[in-house]
Amino acid sequence: MTALAADANRKTRGTSGRQVGYLMAASQTIYKGGLVMLNGSGLAVPATDAAAGIVVGVADEKVVSAASGSYWIKVRSGESFLFAASSITQAMVGVAMYVVDDNTVDDAAGPTNDRPVGVLEEFVSTTQGWVFIPAGGSPTGVAA
After folding, report:
1. Rounded to two decimals, what is the model's pTM?
2. In whole angstroms, how far apart are CA 74 and each of 87, 96, 110, 128, 141?
């Protein structure tokens, strides 16, 4: 799959989620429906398979930032979201999923840096699955 280049109407399940606002890094575009992570400075950026960063959820809106720390993005977590996947299987249900890009997840064998997103809750196909992202994201990882 590929990173988002436009807003995505991400399907979600659950009503117990929460919305949190995060300050954004400078010169970033975060698309609605994209995975959001906090960089080493604690500022929101589109999620990538970076060496550092904490996934905090899914963008509830599109925001284009100019100056660092001057723009806020609303992010949802504590729900299940339907994501594109690189190569998942039914046997991975209950297993941790990791960032490939702001639109795609995979098991630990896929991405290089293994930034946790959440747990595969339901297998749809080898290229799609429902992933539960804990409230507040996955700062210390998720159980595999």
Report:
1. 0.90
2. 29, 24, 28, 24, 22
Residue 23: phi, psi to the nearest 5? -70, 145
Residues in CB range of 3: below 8 A, 6 or more apart: 34, 46, 48, 101, 102, 103, 104
Residue-wise pLDDT tens digits, 65-123: 988 778 999 999 999 999 999 999 999 999 999 999 999 999 987 788 889 999 999 99
